Amino acid sequence: MRDFSYDRADNVGAAIKSHVSGADSAYIAGGTTLLDLAKLEVMRPGHIVDVRRTGLDRIERLDDGRLCIGTNVTNTDLAYHEDVTTHHKLLSEALLSGASTSIRNKATTGGNVMQRCRCSYFRDNVSPCNKRDPGSGCAAIDGHSRSVYAVLGTSKQCIVAHPSDMCVAMAAIGATVSVAGPNGKRDIDFGDFHLLPGDTPWREHALASDEMITHVTLDAPIDGAKSHYLKLRDRASYQFALASSGVIVATEGGVIRHARIALGGVGTKPWRAERAERYLVGKPATADNFGHAANMALAEARPTEDNAFKIPLGRQAIVRSLTTVTA
Amino acid sequence: MSTDIIGAAKPRIDGTAKLSGSAPYAADHYPANLAYAYGVFSTIAAGEITSIDVSRAKKMPGVIEIFHHDNFPNLHRTPSSFVQQNKVDETRLPFEDNHVYYGGQFVALVVADTFENARDAAYHVDVAYRAKKPVTSLAQALAQGEPKPADNKKHERGDPDTAYSGAAHKIEATYTTPIETHNPMEMHATTAHWHDGHLTFYEASQGVVFAKHTMAAIFGINPARIDARAPYIGSGFGSKLWIWPHAVACAAAARELDRPVQLVVPRQQMFTTTGHRAATQQKIRLATDDDGKLVSISHDSINTTSFVNRYVESCGSCTKSLYGCDNVRITESTVQVNHGTPTSMRAPGAAQGLFALESAIDEMAEQIGMDPLEFRRRNYTDRDGSKDLPFSSVHLLEAYDKAADKFRWSKRNPKIGSMMRGPEILGWGMAACNWEAMKRDCDARVSLRADGTAFASCATQDIGTGTYTIVAQTVASLTGLPLERIEVELGNSSYPKGPLSGGSWATATALPAIHNATAKAIDALKQHAVEEDGVLAGRDAGQLEFVNGKLHGNGRSFSFADVLKARKIGEAFGEAHTNAASGDEYSFRSFGAHFVEIGWDPGISRLRVHRVVSAIDVGQIVNAKTAANQVEGAIDMGIGMALFEQTEYDHRTGMPINNNYAEYLVPTHLDQPESVDVILLDHPDTKFNELGVRGIGEIGITGMAAAVANAVYHATGKRVRDLPIRIEDLIQT
User: Which residue ranges does the record assign to the FAD-binding PCMH-type domain (chain A) (predicted)?
Assistant: First the structure.
């Protein structure tokens, strides 16, 4: 692990200023990604700005029903917050299905949004990897590509899945990411925050240089909707999703009024299945309609030999989670 | 002998030290002036090093020295003899030459003033390679050439080919098991310290006597100058039976630099340079007559080994004798791949071998339309057909009966997919388990001390299994002392020679020696009592009785402390030697059966183990708590073997892919079955040794993967012959 300078900022302005002043700066909160990768020298921060003392650790329900989450709110605190368990059950379920208790106690909201991928070739610091070493290629495409690789949104430069469960729930709920930087504050729609790999897989998010996340604000809950997050994996705990589905559905007399479907483990970013959602609205909540929606959600999937099973598994996650919330 | 302490469910006497974090493991020792070593590991799996440039690393803060094949001291390979107690599985020394045989091989060693500085500098050693195309899998190796037979492992009796071809019913199937990595919690580690030509080293070791003699052979010095210590081990599962290159590298660096050096193997290299369970491909042929009696068994296995050393998995070790059959053939052979050298992993050979055999037995039972339990009962034997000897003690039928009864096997509907619960299809499967019982030579020393405590020492180890506690229980059984007045020291090679903690033989080996040494200590105490200045001077020692820590004679009683104080003596001690078991009259084996219920939810392709009942026949149980704990842990590991464990390699480079705790899957707490019932039959095997104990570490994992696979078949109709059983094997598309 290389030497780095360390600064603990008391407020957002000071954090940004410190970040600007350093070379190869990185913000740190829970450190569950950064420290891991820095020890492997996959990330090589020269200057670390600790943002945990900047406040931003509150969850506030706004008058319009939206929920404003400070970047430093831990995954544990968010998962058990009453507004979340009451109005955004899938977010609580998603958080609690991720990592382990000790990691969730450290991991923060902003940090989770920013977490890096679990690709073995990214982490080995040797193999070609466009994320780590732009232009070097992607060792995963013809290599070992089972568990943590995507079937949706992949490119010829990168196929790794986005690892977060929390972000899948946020994609389904709808959210705004508030960021601050040297040029002031701005809001980014959650759906635009994470970038598809395309030809530039090293560009993972919409943050500009020196910007940091200050809040994530969830859209107001849909009246009368039920939600559920279903995560499928080999073992029952402590594994990234092979396929997961976060759904929000409101029905009226057996007919679907609102539908949100987001997928994890199968997409290169937290994946909204908007065509499938539109298909469902106005239709009866039947197994056939769920199956058709699931097919639509995975229609564009491009698997490798190793992860082809994620297509049927992703469909199963969608069908079961929709069945659960409409039962 | 006090019977209430033997078999009692006593908590571990080392439990507080471990729970409180005060138990020192190999890397918890910090001799003065300690330096830290960190390895540079090959990033190719085959080829050679063309250059090592240390110029950048040498300038890094705190760097003391960087070793590699150009400047590493000349050492000797160990003869690697089990009898000489200097065995290893990888005889090649670190930095012997510029050849690379596997990914993650030590290619350089940085020593620095701190762990962080050593690691940082190690990242800055520039190694250039000339890479060769590696052999990365068993299948690839087989495609390139014939496997090499291991002749001494072959067994043949009768005429299995003729019996097979003429039989009424027959099956032939091929099963594979992947490479698995032991993944003990505690990393392999060495803290080495030379002083006046003597080496003291703390090692994460399952065998301090072997570690000492191996190091002596490698450094070419008298074993008396070496002291190997492993008072606490964070488990090993076989990976710590012998020392690996890191220990040699660390000790050599400490000698060259004339200061203590500590080396901890990083988690990633626990997948490369400290052994693993070999991959296997096993062909089984079974045939029966019309009554369902086995008339032919053949089991041909191939396992992967390295290009450095040959390691043979004894996949047919149980197949030879588990069932009665006159026509049996076992062959074992190997192919070379560019991985590190395999080594024993919990129930080596048997774990993989019984997956194949016990799956095949179910396939055979199905073909003849017989209940799989009834088929096994029908082929039960009380003789070891491979040795033509009776088993010393076998209660396999009782194990079947008790476990089946508790599991309610009679309620099983044999029709595939017929047992439903909610969205799940339940599958019920079973399998037999089996493991050889072994007992080695052993020395031990026990003393009764003037402070009123007893002290037992033996150069065996407690690898987390409860050996400290059962040694204390054995001393207590003769002395009547409470466990808190019995001190036990293990894991020090200068103590009387004790066994490796492996092969499930530590209990059967060490306890008789401890028992005899305790008896001798009591005799010595009686002798002290009747000496001229003794408390019972002039009496006949043979007439004295020692009960509950007190000596009784002539109507009086004395604490043993008083007996010793009267003579101003510190201790009355006994030293004992017990011999290895003789296999001339009996075959010594342990037996058991697993019954498993799985739930398969086809709508979301979710497979979970709900319920396990296991009955285990391992002789006298010494501690009901630690014994059940061993079986429960092994059941869990068997679930991992069935459903999760597999070290995955890139098929182009041969480098491991899932070399960490996040991606190498073992069962988590949430994967535990809702209920696990372990039935310990507890029939002393006194033909094996006078205490009737056999050992319990390995047997619980044997057969477990087959029981799960058989249950999966019952639920899904899919016979998965390649482990692990994964979603893609079962998903309905």
Answer: 1-223
Q: Is B644 an 8 Å CB contact of chain A?
A: yes
Share of chain A above pLDDT 70, in %: 100
Provide the pLDDT for residue A1.
65
State the Cα angle at B721 between B715 and B723, rounded to 5°.
95
**Of all helices (H) and strands (E), which one includes residue A13?**
helix A12-21
Mean pLDDT of chain A: 97
B424 shares contact with chain A (CB less than 8 Å): no
A50 Cβ neighbours under 8 A, 6+ residues apart: A6, A7, A8, A9, A27, A28, A29
The answer to whether residues B120 and B91 belong to one domain is: yes
Specify whether the CB–CB gap between A32 and A111 falls below 8 A.
yes
Selecting from B119, B662, B731 the residue whose C-beta is nearest the C-beta of A312 gives B731
Whether the CB of B669 is below 8 Å from some CB of chain A: the reply is yes
Q: Are residues B371 and B472 in the same domain?
A: no
| Domain match, B433 and B520 both | no
> B425 with B445, same domain?
no
Asked if A126 lies within 8 A of B606 by C-beta distance, the reply is no
Structural domain containing residue B205: 31-133+189-234+240-271
CB-based contact A324:A246 (threshold 8 Å)? no
- A99 CA to chain B: closest CA distance, Å? 9
Q: Is the Cβ of A327 closer than 8 Å to some Cβ of chain B?
A: no
Output the pLDDT for position B3: 58
Same domain? B195 vs B342: no
Q: Quick: pLDDT tens for A160-180.
A: 999 999 999 999 999 999 999
> Measuring CA to CA, which residue among A84, A96, A322 is closest to residue A226?
A322
Are both B294 and B409 inside the same structural domain?
yes
Nearest to B617 by CA among B508, B506, B676, B696: B696
Note whether residue B26 is domain-resident: no
Q: Among B271, B293, B321, give the residue marking a domain's end.
A: B271
CATH of domain A5-53: 3.30.43.10
* Per-residue model confidence (pLDDT) at position B332: 97
Say if the Cβ atoms of A313 and B605 lie within 8 Å. yes
Contacts by B553-559, CB closer than 8 A, 24 or more apart: B553/B529, B558/B529, B559/B452
- B698 assigned to active site: yes
Query: Mean pLDDT, 10 residues at a time, over chain B (733 residues)?
Result: 82 96 97 98 98 98 98 98 97 98 98 97 97 98 96 90 97 98 97 98 98 98 98 97 98 98 97 98 98 98 98 97 98 98 98 98 98 98 98 98 98 98 98 98 98 98 97 98 97 98 97 98 98 95 95 95 96 98 96 98 98 98 97 98 98 97 96 98 97 97 98 98 98 92
Contact A235 B123 (CB under 8 A): no
Chain B segment 608-627 residues within 8 A of A by beta carbon are: 608
Identify from B267, B665, B727, B732 which residue to disrupt to test chain A contact, counting A C-beta atoms within 10 A and taking the largest count.
B727
How far apart CA B612 and CA A294 sit, in angstroms, is 36
Quick one: pLDDT at residue B151? 76
A316 interfaces chain B, CB cutoff of 8 Å: yes
Nearest-CA distance A324 → chain B (Å):
12
Q: Which of B264, B650, B651 to mutate to test the interface with A (most CBs of A within 10 A)?
A: B650
Domain count for chain B: 3
CATH superfamily of the domain spanning A226-326: CO dehydrogenase flavoprotein, C-terminal domain (3.30.390.50)
Q: Which amino acid is at B369?
A: G
Find all residues with CB under 8 Å of A165, minimum gap 6, and list them: A94, A95, A97, A98, A229, A231, A241, A244, A264
Q: For residue B76, give the CATH number of its domain.
A: 3.90.1170.50
